[in-house]
């Protein structure tokens, strides 16, 4: 299941975070990072998925 979340995180970072932790601090932070730059959003999403 983590492989699917990581693929979602690469294509749409907030979706990968949402699938891992739901709507919370990490989700909103990831949306902000994705809006500021796509690459920081991907890095944060993969970090959240691998961390848990």
Report on the structure:
The chain has 52 residues and is mainly alpha-helical. The chain has one domain (2-51). Helix content is 87%, strand content 0%. It is built from 4 helices and no strands. The longest helix is centred in the C-terminal third of the chain and has 14 residues, at 38-51. The mean pLDDT is 93.
List the helices and strands and how they pair.
Blueprint: H1 2-11, H2 13-21, H3 25-36, H4 38-51
Helix pairs in contact: 1-2, 1-4, 2-3, 2-4, 3-4
Q: Short summary of the structure?
A:
The protein is mostly helical. 87% of the residues lie in helices and 0% in strands. The protein starts with a helix and ends with a helix.
Weakly predicted, low-confidence segments: none
What percent strand?
under 5%
Write the H/E string, N to C. Answer: HHHH
Structural category: mainly alpha
The global form is: globular
Mean pLDDT, to the nearest integer, reads: 93
The tally of beta strands, per DSSP, is 0
Quaternary organisation of the protein chains: single chain
How does the major sheet shape up?
Answer: none
What is the CA–CA distance across the termini? 12 Å
Report the C-alpha radius of gyration, rounded.
9 Å
Count of individual domains: 1
Helix content: over 70%
């Amino acid at each position: 299941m983590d492989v699917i979340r990581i693929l979602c995180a690469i294509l749409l970072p907030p979706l990968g975070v949402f699938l891992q932790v739901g709507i919370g601090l990490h989700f909103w932070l990831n949306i902000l990072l994705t809006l500021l730059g796509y690459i920081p959003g991907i890095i944060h999403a993969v970090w959240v998925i691998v961390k848990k």
